[in-house]
What does this fold into?
Amino acid sequence: MRYGQLQALTDVTLSVAAGEAVAIIGANGAGKSTLLRTIAGLHRPAAGKIQLDGREITALPAHERVRAGVVQVPEGRRLFPSLTLEENLQIGATRGRAGEWNLSRVYELFPWMPARRHMTTVFLSGGEQQSVAIGRALMANPRILLLDELSLGLAPAVVQRLYALLPDLLESGLGVLLVEQDVTQALRISGHAHCLLEGRITLSGRPADLAPADVEAAYFGFERRGRRG
Amino acid sequence: MSESTAPSVRVSRSRRSSIWMLVAGVVLLAALASLPYVVYANVTDLFVNFFILLTLGVTWNLLAGYAGLVSVGQQAYIGVGAYAVLVLAGDGMSPFLAIPLGALTAAIVSIPVSFIVLHLRGAYFAIATWVVAESFRLAVLRAPSLGGGTGATLYGLAGVDPAVREAFTYWAALAVAAATLIGCYVLLRTRFGLDLTAIRDNEVGARSVGVRIMQAKRIVYVVAAAGAGAAGALLIVSQLNVQAASIFSVQWSAYMIFVALIGGIGTVEGPILGTLAFFLLQQSLAERGAWYLIVVGAVAVLMAMFVPRGLWGLVGDRFRLRLFPTGYWVRPAR
Amino acid sequence: MSWVNAVVQGILLGGLYALFACGLSLMFGVMKVVNLAHGDFAVLAAYLALVIVSGFEVPILWSVLLVAPLFGLVGYVVQRFIIQRSLDVSPLTTLLVTFGLSIVIQNALLEAASANSESLQSGILASGSFQVAGLHVGYLSVLIFVTATAVIVGLQLFLSRTSLGRQLRAASDDQETASSVGVNVRHVFGVAAGIAFGTVALAGVAFGMYSSFDPAAGPQRLIFAFEAVVIGGMGSLWGTLLGGIVLGLAQVLGSQIDPGFGVLAGHIVFLAVLAFRPSGLIPQVAQAAQ
It folds into this structure.
């Protein structure tokens, strides 16, 4: 996979099963976001394949992947400032699939929303904005949800609450691929984890089987390059 | 990019080919200067138009290609240059001597205008410059002393032998075109040229490293106005009359833009090649009325979309050629 | 008395300019694109209406029903295959390309028709007028003003109430995120251009009924439209209506001072707004539907 003129990802192979959460962990610049954005269709890979249920979707543009069931919650929320809260949710259903998620289901999940649905999202707190971004993605009734740095800039308690939503979503058969710098949080929630270093997967396994020292080594690449002064 | 890790490179400015080009340029200039002794006036007339177009193309390219300012209103200064010559000649000055003053007048007029238009970008700048040109035209229409809507005739050349007049007009046009080219080239090779390139590539970054953006843009704007003024002065001298509707016509902007688009924006060589191509198209389609602008316009549009670096981008890269080396060659050292 | 009359005429003329400008305003508001061939497309629409009217002997207002949808289609194609493609090169390329298009259209019209000026004869609509409080008010000016207002209200409702309008606002905010939540950005931009071109067709026909036109009339139409948009505030449709009215007033009151001063007065107001209030009279705020 190439990003610009630099090769950002090399030989990355991973899969996500329905009802499973898979975590990608790694330091800044390891290629985590590039990976997620490539799966969402925002980057075209130079080589390699992306498949959904055996159907190749590598050539599909981003908006068509939403219809196929691949939906991203982007890093930094990226809500639309010209749209009201409710419109931000509705736009998620533009090319969505049919399914259980609709406005009233999202409002059930986030009971504070209906009172503010006609307001712009600019003045919401970070956690509230992240909830809208999650709601927007759910409106498309995804098969697989791509979560990019959910915890970024949020208080730990808020992050806890957001991640507490995941088990129910997984229960309903949704697959989740999450990129997270908060390793503890990511490992706690996921059934499988991959550690990404300089565009390569250096460690994979079930969180329970991964020794903290190995994770640390894979995360920072100590073993390969030696500790730098 | 530390020295220990970067492969060693050789940085040079001129290459041997550039030096030969310089020699060729001097020879070409001498040959062109002797042309009136060799050919008839109808040929030198063609060259006069060519030099005017070249001057316009090069200065427009300086604005758009180096300062990122797409002007659709350079005809304002073409008109100012022409009317300045008209007025000065009316006061008894030789029209040929008035040509540099026409350029100077345009430059002076452009300074106050620059305070309105230069803080604008993109379409705002483009249309604002256009409206300025339109305003100049409407103002001239309301000035009976300048001939108003019917136009005015240039006095001062009536008694001169046409052959002599045409030869001098040719030399004046050659001098203006050569001065414009050399002037732009020298300007771009100075520190100032680097500043401009930095602005074009990344205005915010340029500001952060201390480039004085507004000043650089103003210099370019005034220089381009002087070029357009000189072109306007040449126009009135070669045509012996001036009409507000045609001298302030947006058609001139179309010519400049097409020349730069076809030749390649952002290089010194591009507009030369563009002027040649434009001129050939114009001459070969001369019998077909409006068709030539349809064809030239369509070519320019297609070039802009599919060959954004223009003809020179194709040729210069192919042969690693620079007639006017303003950049640097960076090659691995052997 | 004549001053009161001038004010009324100026406001009504403003409706025509606003009708001209709302397509430009929409395209700038959504795609940040200024189509320099805007005026020439309007003139093209007027010629097309002329051909339809004389060819099929139908009333002018009927020809609009054909020209406007046709222009909608043209707008979609121009956006997807010319404007979007040039945007991918650089925003400045869009200016150059649309300017080139403007020259091509003008000269193609010159080749197809002639340099003579034409007009769309609408009979009683153009010449008829009614009297209010001693003022003569032309049917046509009122019709155009009402049309302009209706178009602006319609566009505003479309943007704030429909799914497509929502997608347009989202794509305008953030193209990448819009596409990642399922908006086909290039398609909706094409639709926006189609709508804008539909209004251009309306404006071209209206102008053709209002005054004569020739192949070279486009640039001036573009300048007036752009002036209205900038005076009102880029990207705000209500601002565009206000800007059109201010421009119309400046021109008519300017002519009142001196017959040759009208257009120049409009230019001076425009340049003054650029110099002292570049964001326009109604600057665009985040346009959340209330």
